Task: inverse folding
């Protein structure tokens, strides 16, 4: 089994990366082949909205480090996406990746029937783990609406790609302590168990 972990934190060796690595470690202990990608190390750009990908569905026309990574995603059995929460949403790095997933989708209207259609050039059935690290305390202790939208939006990503299984790993109360995850044995154990379960 091949599993890729994508760390979308701009911070090096901080909580998000720690947890993504823990998930990969749990999978590796069960014999999986794993790969970690730190988006902060890549030359990536946001979607241009140029529709060039509709001429060859599934292929972004941009010449940056993200285009080949998007193609690589097709070859993995499971995908681990990790992001910190900045201003009640995902990092800019993850948002750029998600927007570029648009290259796999095509929608339109059938000229013969007039019916709307959606086509996807992405293998269905992959397993996903979404790792989310935030400084705030658990939503139940504050205003839930601050994060309800985020969890719903994150869930749409794997669903739109035909995911076979979706798991979440949440870290709360990290504040600015970049070692909070590393020092939380229970959280690391949970992350490794998720990886092993893949």
Result:
């Amino acid at each position: 089994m091949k599993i890729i972990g994508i760390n979308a934190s701009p911070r090096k060796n901080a909580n998000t990366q720690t947890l993504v690595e823990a998930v990969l470690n749990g999978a590796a202990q069960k014999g999986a082949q794993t790969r970690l990608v730190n988006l902060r190390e890549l030359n990536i750009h946001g979607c241009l909205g140029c529709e060039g990908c509709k001429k060859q569905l599934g292929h972004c026309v941009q010449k940056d480090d993200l285009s080949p990574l998007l193609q690589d995603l097709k070859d993995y059995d499971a995908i681990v996406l990790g992001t910190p929460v900045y201003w009640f949403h995902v990092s800019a790095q993850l948002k750029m990746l998600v927007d570029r997933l648009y290259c796999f989708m095509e929608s339109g209207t059938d000229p013969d029937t007039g019916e709307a259609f959606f086509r996807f050039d992405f293998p269905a059935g992959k397993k996903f783990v979404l790792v989310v690290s935030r400084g705030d305390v658990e939503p139940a202790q504050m205003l839930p609406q601050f994060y309800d939208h985020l969890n719903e939006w994150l869930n749409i990503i794997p669903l739109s790609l035909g995911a076979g299984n979706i798991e979440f790993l949440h870290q709360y109360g990290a504040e600015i302590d970049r070692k909070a995850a590393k020092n939380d044995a229970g959280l690391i154990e949970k992350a490794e168990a998720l990886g092993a379960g893949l």
Remarks:
- The chain is about 30% helix and 25% strand.
- The radius of gyration is 17 Å.
